[in-house]
């Protein structure tokens, strides 16, 4: 990972843009939409910038950059067409511990502005670490085509009921299960169809009738350790599992596709972990056992299926091993 993905709250924060041309104007609009207080410095500033930043809380200075311009700023964008000036701005900003993005020279700064899909409050950012901005833009266009326009409204609706759901379920696992089921149910479809009141009513009904979550077991065989060979169902279950038991023959590339907040438990002898797997399932957790060894998977599948036979625990096996 070349950069740490991070979203910044710049509302009412002073942000410096060095440059007054077309590129600077695009960054100014982006920062303004996030609620920043702009300080724009350039020998010549376009009239469109003046028109856009008409509020008194913004500062526009038609002169060359001076290190004093960095005073009290939370973020800097160097967007001039002068490499030497951009370099000077970047060096001064980094010396003062301020994040700085340098247009067309990401290596000179320490921050990158990604391609953005805005479904506020849902935000998706795509970056190629500055290597290929065009590719980031193309990826953004693909994501724009598959993310519903009503996604932000769905997130806002969920936010309204967050407190009620927390009061209804003491366990974070039960809350997580409720939201995973609800956000992929008819509630989402009603929001996307602009039927907000009906979606709100449906959500309330689901909350009133919701039961505490029961555990599930997922068994996945990754014989070739190739992420590209994983089925959509396997990826979905890997993202749902809250506890992951894995053998040491599973590749790092495969393990990286599991949900980031899952508990990871290394397994050398599957039989020795059967009791612990049962315990996690009894505690209402979604448990994944993943291995590249078909024999281990067959053994654990047979043993656990017997132990769970009378508990009505859903068991998903991908692919189904041959006994």
Outline the low-pLDDT stretches: none
Assign the CATH topology of the largest domain.
Rossmann fold
Strand content: 15-25%
Which homologous superfamily in CATH is the superfamily of the largest domain? Answer: NAD(P)-binding Rossmann-like Domain
The 3D shape can be described as elongated
Query: If classified by CATH, what would the architecture of the largest domain be?
Result: 3-Layer(aba) Sandwich
H/E series, N to C? EHEHEEHEEEHHHHHHEHEHEHEHE
Distance between the termini: 41 Å
Instruction: Give the helix/strand class.
Output: alpha/beta
Fraction of helical residues: 40-55%
CA radius of gyration is: 26 Å
- The total beta strand count reads 12
Number of domains: 4
Q: Looking across the biggest beta sheet, what order are the strands in?
A: 3-2-1-4-5
What average pLDDT do the residues reach? 91
Largest beta-sheet details: 5 strands, parallel
User: How many individual helices?
Assistant: 13
The CATH class of the largest domain is Alpha Beta
Short structural summary:
It catalyses: precorrin-2 + NAD(+) = sirohydrochlorin + NADH + 2 H(+). The chain is of the alpha/beta class.
């Amino acid at each position: 990972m070349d950069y740490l993905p991070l979203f910044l709250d710049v509302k009412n924060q002073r942000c410096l843009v060095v440059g007054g041309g077309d590129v600077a104007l695009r960054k100014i609009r982006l920062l303004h939409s996030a609620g920043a207080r702009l300080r724009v410095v350039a020998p010549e500033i376009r009239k469109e910038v003046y028109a856009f930043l008409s509020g008194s809380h913004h500062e526009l200075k038609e002169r060359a950059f001076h290190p004093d311009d960095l005073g009290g700023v939370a973020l800097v964008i160097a967007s001039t067409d002068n490499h030497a000036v951009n370099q000077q701005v970047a060096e001064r900003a980094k010396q003062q511990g301020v994040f700085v993005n340098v247009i067309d020279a990401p290596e000179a700064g320490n921050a990158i502005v990604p391609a953005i899909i805005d479904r506020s409050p849902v935000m998706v950012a795509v970056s190629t670490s500055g290597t290929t901005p065009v590719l980031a833009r193309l990826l953004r266009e693909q994501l724009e085509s598959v993310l519903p326009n009503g996604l932000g409204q769905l997130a806002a609706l969920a936010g309204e009921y967050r407190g009620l759901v927390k009061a209804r379920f003491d366990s974070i696992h039960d809350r997580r299960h409720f939201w995973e089921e609800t956000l992929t149910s008819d509630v989402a479809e009603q929001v996307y169809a602009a039927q907000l009141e009906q979606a709100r009513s449906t959500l309330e009904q689901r909350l009133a009738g919701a039961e505490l979550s029961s555990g599930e077991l997922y068994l996945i065989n990754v014989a070739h350790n190739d992420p590209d060979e994983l089925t959509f169902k396997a990826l979905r279950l890997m993202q749902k599992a809250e506890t992951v038991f894995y053998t040491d023959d599973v590749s790092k590339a495969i393990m990286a596709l599991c949900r980031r907040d899952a508990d990871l438990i290394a397994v050398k002898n599957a039989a020795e972990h059967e009791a612990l797997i049962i315990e996690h399932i009894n505690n209402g957790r979604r448990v994944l056992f993943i291995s590249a060894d078909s024999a281990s998977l067959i053994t654990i599948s047979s043993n656990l299926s017997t132990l769970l036979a009378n508990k009505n625990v859903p068991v998903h096996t991908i692919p189904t091993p041959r006994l």
